[in-house]
Amino acid sequence: MKTIKDILKEKGSEVFTIDQNETVYSALAKMAEKNLGALVVTDDKGAVVGLLSERDYARKVILKGVFSKDTLVGTIMEKQVCYVRPHNTVEESMSLMTEKRTRHLPVMENGQLLGLVSIGDLVKVTIKEKEFLIDQLTNYIKTG
């Protein structure tokens, strides 16, 4: 059973962050430049204080008629950040994402940000595991 640590080993642990006092426009520019769907939001000391996703932008800026160049990330970010630890399994993480209706989970350990996993990362690993199991069962049937 794969863990979040296994995913970070494969994909890397680079996490893109944005300060809560930056503008939403700056966050969008960073997401576009890095081809990301979310950024981890930090305070001036680098502590994780939120998560900003494209969904937050669509629902809290566009639909409310405010301007991204005038709005600070801290005012629209998701403040109740769910996270996982490196030892959590893919299944546990997918369950948490489903329950909390989120597509991104920061990976935290002892207050430190170690990475970020997306639903895409988890689905990719799950599919690989299922394909491996199918191959093993197919080989067993053919040779057994």
Q: Roughly how many Å apart are the termini?
A: 25 Å
Per CATH, the superfamily is CBS-domain
Tally of DSSP helical segments: 6
Physical arrangement of strands within the biggest beta sheet: 1-2-3
Overall structural class, as computed from helix and strand content, comes to: alpha+beta
Which regions have little confidence, pLDDT < 50, spanning 5+ residues? none
Oligomeric form of this entry? single chain
Integer-rounded radius of gyration? 18 Å
CATH topology: CBS-domain
Name the helicity range: 40-55%
Largest sheet: 3 strands, mixed
- Beta-strand percentage? 15-25%
**Proper CATH architecture:** Roll
| CATH class category | Alpha Beta
**Beta strands, count:** 5
Top keywords for this entry?
144 residues, three-stranded mixed β-sheet, two-stranded antiparallel ribbon, 19% strand, 6 helices, single chain, CBS-domain, alpha+beta
What does this 3D model show about the protein?
With 144 residues, this protein is of the alpha+beta class. It has one domain (4-143): Roll (CBS-domain), CATH 3.10.580. The chain has 6 helices and 5 strands. The protein has helices spanning 4-11, 24-34, 54-62, 73-76, 90-100, 119-143, and strands at residues 17-19, 38-42, 48-53, 104-109, 112-118. The strands form 2 sheets. Strands 1-2-3 form a 3-stranded mixed β-sheet. Strand 1 (17-19), helix 2 (24-34) and strand 2 (38-42) form a beta-alpha-beta unit. Helix 5 packs across helix 6. It is elongated. The model has no long low-confidence stretch (mean pLDDT 93).
